[in-house]
Design goal:
It is built from three helices and 27 strands. With 421 residues, the protein is mainly beta.
């Protein structure tokens, strides 16, 4: 490896010393790599690139073509392409499968163009690749599992495309990845537990996808994780108790369906400068946690963006077959930032082992409901939760945790005495 670095440095000095207007320092590329470059040009409408200077020039000029960088390595041909950088250059069309022929390629940056079609699995054969930037294009299909072979990859950006489907399990093989951006696609499924294999990860962006399920605790075992963005997905469940372990600086969790108490361990996030959990169903476990979020969230009323369970539930039998429930909304009146929604009433009979939804009460200003048709003399248990309808800040229906349960035994039906005629 040291010999490779010395050789490359010496060649770079000679290149810089060449007089202006001199013939390219580099000799011709191998016919295989030259042909692959021409394939890329033709497949992506090279004639209409913003800058196509030098492209399709005679053999020996390839390393001077705009966006192409070459080097010499102890293994393979000399020179060989080690970087292709055509960011924001009006590339249109499909990425050719001959891209696999650049065996020394370390950087491929085709971001901010109009490329379409599937991301070719042949990219998984570029085993020396360290940076792969294909964001802000029009790629469709699923993320190719072959990318998991890129064990040297440090930077992967596929954001702002139209990719769908789950994260392939093969991506667990990205042992060196430090920055991973997959935001603004249609990725679905759960965030898998094998994300804990990304031990070098410092930044993870999965905003505005269709991911669901809980946030795996393994994510917060990544000691180098600095920035986490999971905004506007469909994540549910509670925050893992170990959220305070990594050296997180920035956290975005807004616009999901997360709920429950915020773990006290967040107070251990000494390096945290910003956190946003708006438009979920969280509640703080202490005044210290509430203040911690106010200080680092830039939103004074962050708690009023949450969908919180109603308080002080009371259930009274009004007849032998009817009960009336009353409660206090968590934020009555104008204090609630999202007033669209209502309440869900759950009931469990004495012989049942589970609550079932029996009534929807529209309007968050509501504070009461009646339940009829119950069996006289029976025991019933009730719970209520708040729900918020989709709105501009969150496309999800968000449900709070259930209120405390309240049980009531209905009076027996009055007996009817018969009379002799």
């Amino acid at each position: 490896m040291r010999r490779t670095c010395y050789l490359f440095a010496a060649l770079l000095v000679l290149l810089l010393a060449a007089p202006a207007g001199a013939k390219s320092f580099w000799g011709p590329l191998s016919p295989v790599e030259r042909e692959a470059l021409i394939d890329l040009y033709e497949a992506t409408d090279g004639e209409n690139w913003i800058n196509n200077e030098g492209w399709l020039g005679p053999p020996g000029t390839e390393c001077d073509w705009h966006g192409v960088s070459c080097g010499c390595f102890t293994e393979g041909a000399c020179p060989a392409v080690y970087q292709i950088d055509l960011e924001q250059n009006n590339l249109r069309g499909y990425l050719p499968r001959s891209i696999r022929r650049f065996r020394q390629l370390q950087v491929l940056n085709l971001a901010i163009n109009r490329l379409q079609g599937e991301v070719p699995g042949e990219l998984g054969k570029l085993l020396r690749l360290r940076e792969l930037e294909l964001g802000v294009n029009r790629f469709t299909g699923e993320i190719p599992p072959e990318l998991g072979r890129l064990t040297r990859l440090r930077y992967l950006s596929l954001g702002f495309n139209d990719l769908h489907g789950p994260l392939p399990a093969e991506l667990a093989g990205l042992k060196s990845v430090q920055l991973l951006f997959l935001s603004d696609n249609r990725l679905s499924g759960e965030l898998p537990h094998w994300v804990g294999e990304w031990t070098a990860l410092s930044t993870l962006g999965l905003d505005r996808n269709e991911l669901s399920g809980s946030i795996p605790a393994e994510l917060f075992e990544l000691k180098d994780l600095n920035e986490l963005s999971l905004t506007e997905n469909h994540f549910t469940g509670r925050l893992p108790a170990n959220i305070g372990k990594p050296e997180l600086h920035i956290v975005h969790l807004e616009g999901n369906r997360l709920s429950g108490p915020i773990p006290e361990s967040v107070l251990d996030l000494d390096f945290l400068s910003y956190i946003n959990v708006s438009w979920n169903a969280f509640y703080p476990t202490s005044p210290e946690v509430e203040q911690f979020f106010m200080d680092r969230g830039g939103l004074l009323g962050w708690l009023q963006t949450q969908t919180l369970a109603p308080e002080n539930l009371v259930v009274v039998a009004t007849s032998s077959s009817t009960v009336r429930l009353t409660w206090e909304p968590a934020f009555p009146g104008p204090g609630l930032l999202n007033e669209r929604g209502g309440y869900l009433v759950y009931m469990k009979a004495a012989a049942s082992d589970r609550f079932r939804l029996i009534k929807t009460v529209p309007g968050k200003e509501s504070s009461a409901a009646s339940v009829n048709g119950l069996k006289p003399g029976s025991l019933y248990t009730f719970r209520v939760r708040t729900f918020s309808k989709p709105h501009a800040e969150n496309e999800n229906i968000v449900r709070s945790e259930l209120s405390s349960s309240v049980a009531v035994t209905l009076p027996s039906a009055p007996s009817v005495e018969g009379r002799l005629p």
